[in-house]
Structures are given as C-alpha cells and as structure tokens.
Amino acid sequence: MLSALAASLFLAVSDRVRSRVLPHLVSFATGALLSAALLGLLPHAIESAGAADSHDIGLTLLGGLLLFFVLEKMVLWRHCHADVCEVHVSPEPHAHAHGHNHHRHPNNHSHEHGRDRASATLILIGDGFHNVLDGVLIAAAFMTDIHLGVVTAIAVCAHEIPQEVGDLAILLNGGMSRLKALTLNLLASVTSVLGGVLAYFAMAEVQQVLPYAIAIAASSFLYIAVADLIPGLHRKVDPGSGVWQLVYIVLGVVVIYVSHNLAH
C-alpha cells in the first residue's frame, strides 16, 4: 500500500517529469531485487535448511524460476487473446472473382478502445494476484527472521513503486478517472495483507517449508529483475543512459546491503 501511495504522487506531476524519473526507479528496483535475492534471501534459505539440504534449495530456486516463466507466459497469452477485437473482413483485389484471399482489417477505434479497457481490467487482476504473492513472500521472510522480513519488504517496495506507476498509467489510458484509478489500485494492494495473513496461519504449522518458501521468494525477485526489468533497461543503448542505469542499480544494491547489515 505504501508503494501504491508513493506511486500515486506521480498523478500530480507532468508527463515529462514522470518519463524522466521512472527509468531511474526501474534501475534502482533492479539492484534492490538482485541484492535482496542473492545477499539476503538465498543465504538465509540455505542456512535454515542446513548444509545437507542445500542442493534442495538450489532445486527449489530453479523450480521457482521455471514457475514464474510459465506464469508470465500465461499472462502474455491472456494479453494476446485480450487484444483480439472486432474485425471486418473485406475481400482483396480479385477476391470476388476467385472467392478467396480475404483480408482482415480491424476496426481501429473499437479495437484500440477494447485493448485499453481490457488492459486496465487485466492489470488490476494481475496486480491483485501479484500482491497476494508478495504478502506470502514477506510473511515467509518475517517468520524466518524479522531482519530478513524488513529487507524483503524494502525490496518489494522498491520494485512495486515503478510498477504501480505503470499500472496507474494503464488504468488512466483505459478511460478511468484519476480518483477511480487510484482507488482501484489501492484496493488491489490490500490483497498483500490477505496473502500475508493466509501465509502466516498456513506456515505456522509447517515450519520446515519456510526455507523453500524463501527460495521461491528469491526466484521471484531474480526472475522479475533479470527477465522483466533488465531487458527494459537495454532498450536505451546510449552511453549516458547506461552509466545512470548502473549508478541507480548500484544504489539499489547499496541500500539493501546497508539495511541488511544494520538490521543485524
């Protein structure tokens, strides 16, 4: 919810300011996620499981990466089908003579409007589901170690702020007012509380699964950073952008590293 509220501040600034600040937030989130996974979550998962089960932690990490790959494929598949709007079939030249070679022309207005509304709906569903998982991951981290929970929460916030800004942009583009977009985005964020409560009561009875839940958390952070955020950073190829990206990635690493050490 803090991430959603912080992101809502961008509703009050100009498009020019948003476009300048958002790339830096994405770079910072990349460093925060990578350091939280590799410096915080994985060491704790291995330590909690014990040396004898360290290979199982590695296997869980691999399985988590594959799981998030499949989930993203499913989301992309849904987006692909959501993009299918009403089309008009019109014959190409000589089609009347030959009775085939039909060409599909989309109704541009209804097609674009349908895509915008579908994207707004899907982003709310996807964000709500994602926040449930975030709540589960944060709860698992706190149940392992309160300091690890704080670090995990910081990393989640760092990742969520730029994502929430993007979500708000999609909602506004789907025809929602600023108030409605903000309200629905906050409601979607509340699902993280539900995930945390459910995870607490479920995992309290089976403490032995916590190291593997932490490994799943690490896999989610790694997948988001490597598969989603970093490819977006590579879209800018000029040296100046690359330098600033590296600066903010390192800043994200430093913030998580320092907060982790101070917590201990």
TrEMBL record:
<feature type="compositionally biased region" description="Basic residues">
    <location>
        <begin position="96"/>
        <end position="108"/>
    </location>
</feature>
<dbReference type="Pfam" id="PF02535">
    <property type="entry name" value="Zip"/>
</dbReference>
<feature type="transmembrane region" description="Helical">
    <location>
        <begin position="54"/>
        <end position="71"/>
    </location>
</feature>
<feature type="transmembrane region" description="Helical">
    <location>
        <begin position="179"/>
        <end position="203"/>
    </location>
</feature>
<feature type="transmembrane region" description="Helical">
    <location>
        <begin position="209"/>
        <end position="230"/>
    </location>
</feature>
<feature type="transmembrane region" description="Helical">
    <location>
        <begin position="242"/>
        <end position="260"/>
    </location>
</feature>
<feature type="transmembrane region" description="Helical">
    <location>
        <begin position="136"/>
        <end position="158"/>
    </location>
</feature>
<dbReference type="InterPro" id="IPR003689">
    <property type="entry name" value="ZIP"/>
</dbReference>
<feature type="transmembrane region" description="Helical">
    <location>
        <begin position="24"/>
        <end position="42"/>
    </location>
</feature>
<feature type="region of interest" description="Disordered">
    <location>
        <begin position="95"/>
        <end position="114"/>
    </location>
</feature>
<protein>
    <submittedName>
        <fullName>ZIP family metal transporter</fullName>
    </submittedName>
</protein>
<keyword id="KW-0472">Membrane</keyword>
<keyword id="KW-1133">Transmembrane helix</keyword>
<keyword id="KW-0812">Transmembrane</keyword>
